[in-house]
Every structure is written in C-alpha cells, then in structure tokens.
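2024-03-11 09:14:02 DEBUG pipeline.ingest accepted 1 chain
2024-03-11 09:14:02 DEBUG pipeline.ingest length=253
2024-03-11 09:14:03 DEBUG pipeline.predict start
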Amino acid sequence: MIAVSGLSFRRDEGFRLGIEALDAANGQVCALVGKNGCGKSTLLRCLAGILPYEGSALVDGSEVRGLGHRERARRLAYLPQDPGCPHMDVRTLASHGRYATLGAVRTMGERDRALVRRAMELTGVWELRDRLLSDVSGGELQRAYLAMIVAQDAGTLLLDEPSAHLDARGRWELARLLRQLAAEGLAVVVATHDVEAAFSLADQVCLMAAGSVVAKGTPDAVAASGEVSGALGVGIERQRDPRLLWGYALTRA
C-alpha cells in the first residue's frame, strides 16, 4: 500500500511536482494519466525511492526514503520506461527479480525458482525462456520485464508505461494480468498514456496536469469531473456495448 501526503519534488529547470494526497490500496489498480510532462514518471520515481522528495511517501506504513535497498525491494517493484536490452536470455532477466532480496551471494532456492517460473507463465514468456532478449520482439521484451518485477514478489508494483510496444491483444492481456495481480492482494500503480485501458481496468484514476493531481477517484467520478478535457486534450466516455474490449472510449474534447 502507498500513502502520499504533501509530496514535492523540484527539478533544476523549474518543473515542480506537488501531490497533496494520494493512496494506492492493496488489492486495487491505481492509474496515473495525463499529458507528456505532467509528472507521472517523476511521481513513480519518487515513490520508488529513486528521486529525493520532500513530504511523505509511505509503503506499508514505512517512509520510502528511509528503507534500505533490500527492504525496499521486498515492498516495492518498479519498472521504468524503456529499461534497455541487456545481453542475456529471458529466464535470466526474469530471475533478476529475485536478486535484489538475495544479498551478495545471489543463490536462488526452490521458492525463488518457483516464483520466477510462475511470473514467466503469468506474463506469457515461459516458452521464450531460453531466447536472447535481442532475439525477441519489443512486446515480448516488455513482457519479460514484467515477469522480472512479478518475480520480485513485492506487495506494491510501480509500472511506467507497461503497455509500450504491446499490440492490441497484448494491451488487453496486460490489463487482465494487472487485474489478476490486484486480486491477489497487490497494490498496482501504473502510469500510462493508454487512457481507454486505464479508465477501463483501474479501481482509481489519478488525473495529472502540470505536476499535480487535478482529479482522482473511481473512473466514473473522474470522467464526470469536468477536468478530463483540460488535462488530456480529449474526453472519455463510458461505453455500454458488451462487445467492446474497453469499457471507456476517447471522445472529442
């Protein structure tokens, strides 16, 4: 669980992030949406303990900046945008999700190997386990990284644009995976430009603009808030046709 209160961060060039309050509960998906440069990625990096922030960001009741590396890894798993393509196979990448909590020896036991396999099966990359990352598609690489953070077995997931490089089917399968992880009791915080998916899968939507949250609540509440068109430049509307994959669709502002 994440609980933010009075969090702020300022870059040298003048951008300021200021979040008065934000909660991401266990068992729920919280979606951060907004235009490029609104602060979504910056907020995730503060929550992950990467950027120095003022104010408070608690994970399971403990201040993020006060946690050591291994303890933070037990509580938080963070997937950045475009994490790269190291020279290793898919299974080795997924196994890196366990290394943060193993210490210097990095010897995996039976439980670690089981967590890695389950993560790879959940994300659909088990059959690719022996393939080099350089030999898989962009979408497959993204799913391999998802396997890595799922294997970390942390209680909170912070995902920055996880649907990048995924095709339409992959976006739908990702949404189902995030819902499944939340159903297992995890807190899932996802920053995304995939607005239709965000409103359709999230329990809570946080609409961001110019470094702050301008609306938050259930997807229906945020869609009706009157803030969407100003923050996104488009509108969002619930769809009632059961044949549609997404429960919300973009509209003209």
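2024-03-11 09:14:41 DEBUG pipeline.report The chain is about 35% helix and 25% strand.
2024-03-11 09:14:41 DEBUG pipeline.predict end
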